[in-house]
Design goal:
Blueprint (H helix, E strand, L loop, with lengths): L30 H29 L8 H16 L4 H10 L1 E4 L3 E6 L15 H13 L7 E2 L8 E7 L2 H12 L4 E9 L6 E4 L3 E3 L1 E3 L3 E8 L3 E8 L6 H9 L23 H7 L13 E8 L9 E4 L4 H9 L4 E4 L5 E4 L5
Helix pairs in contact: 3-4
Catalytic activity: a uridine in tRNA = a pseudouridine in tRNA; a uridine in mRNA = a pseudouridine in mRNA; uridine in 5S rRNA = pseudouridine in 5S rRNA
Keywords: Isomerase
GO molecular function, one term: RNA binding
Length: 346
């Protein structure tokens, strides 16, 4: 008997027209034609079912939170997810609108929340990916890519310095390494640091034990929260978050990594704080990290004979939280000192 013309699973019985384990009779049509037709129909039905489910998910409306804060948290979560899906040209355009300083050597942007600086596992889009596009938007199609001068964590917002030339970037990096750049961060904390100003110098372990030093002062406070200015003297990874949480027992609002000593879990907030924010504890995991790189002061470099004072306003969610928690926004006087004042509605 000649071999069958299709490679169907199972064995053929010599001298018969049946397959072991087959329930089909080979009478009117060849077995392969029936199997192929059946497979095509099943595939079509499966594809139609998947398309219908996908369309249903698109059209299904999510319940709209009644609290303005919950709506804002939902918007921020959605925005962070969208950042990883936008086209690089769109992201570069958004960064260009956030430029706070530009000269022949440097470009300074206000880094948004949720955007990583470097690529890595699970990162679809980062700042380094769009530096060539941003350079072309600012200096034309023949422009060379911009260069990073330092880094900020994905969840941190604020001042970020870029350089046009690699050599200038190297010089600025050296200024950071030798601690010649003055850095000021703002953080909203859960609880109030005691004393209201001081220095934290507990070591931090990152591959090896390293000395870490942070100066701090409270700019505004209530019974349960505070706006704190931080000046890191050293530059250890997550230094500010560790020092506030474990050194002062005042974790940053939205820090779900360092708020608990024993386990990685969403930050637990007091009933009073939750009430002011208009949130339930079950939604606390969506609160973003309230850490903002507010100011950098670069010393004179190259042809620039004066220091460069770079200031970025905090993002909208940060300002909204200040207002909700009855904390006052600092305003700079003529001497450059921060003085607390009422938060304006945005």
């Amino acid at each position: 008997m000649a071999a069958p013309s299709c490679k169907a699973p199972g064995q053929w019985v010599r001298g018969s027209k049946q397959r072991l384990g087959s329930l089909f009779s080979l009478v009117s049509k060849p077995f392969c034609s029936v199997a192929a037709a059946s497979g095509t129909v099943s595939a079509q039905r499966l594809a139609e079912k998947l398309r219908a489910q996908k369309q249903e998910q698109k059209t299904k409306k999510q319940p709209v939170p009644t609290s303005p804060v919950q709506r804002r948290v939902q918007e921020l979560v959605r925005f962070t997810q969208q950042l990883q899906r936008v086209h690089p040209n769109v992201l570069a355009k958004a960064l260009s609108r956030g430029i706070v300083h530009q000269d022949k050597d440097l470009v300074v942007i206000n880094k948004p929340y949720g955007l990583p600086v470097h690529g890595g596992p699970g990162v679809q889009l980062c700042i380094t990916d769009v530096l060539p596009i941003l350079a072309k938007m600012l200096h034309g199609h023949k422009a060379e890519p911009l260069h990073l001068c330092h880094r900020l964590d994905k969840e941190t917002t604020g001042v970020m310095v870029l350089a046009w030339e690699k050599e200038v970037a190297r010089q600025v990096q050296e200024l950071f390494r030798t601690r010649q750049v003055a850095k000021k961060y703002w953080a909203i904390t859960v609880r109030v640091p005691v004393p209201p100003a001081g220095v934290v110098d507990i070591p931090i372990i990152e591959k090896e034990v390293q000395v870490a030093v942070t100066q701090y002062r409270v700019l505004s406070s209530t019974l349960s929260s505070a706006l704190v200015e931080l000046q890191p003297i050293t530059g250890i990874k997550h230094q500010l978050r560790v020092h506030l949480s474990f050194g002062l027992d005042c974790p940053i609002l939205g820090d779900h990594k360092y708020s608990n000593w024993t386990q990685l879990a969403p930050q637990k907030l007091s009933l009073g704080t939750l009430k002011k924010l208009g949130l339930h504890q079950t939604k606390a995991r969506h609160i973003p990290l309230h850490l903002h790189a507010h100011q950098l002061i670069l010393p004179a470099l190259g042809s620039r004979k004066e220091e460069l004072d770079l200031v970025c306003k905090p993002p909208r969610y940060f300002v909204c939280s200040l207002r909700r928690l009855d904390l006052e926004m600092p305003s700079q006087d003529q001497n450059g000192d921060d003085k607390a004042g009422p938060v304006r509605a945005q």
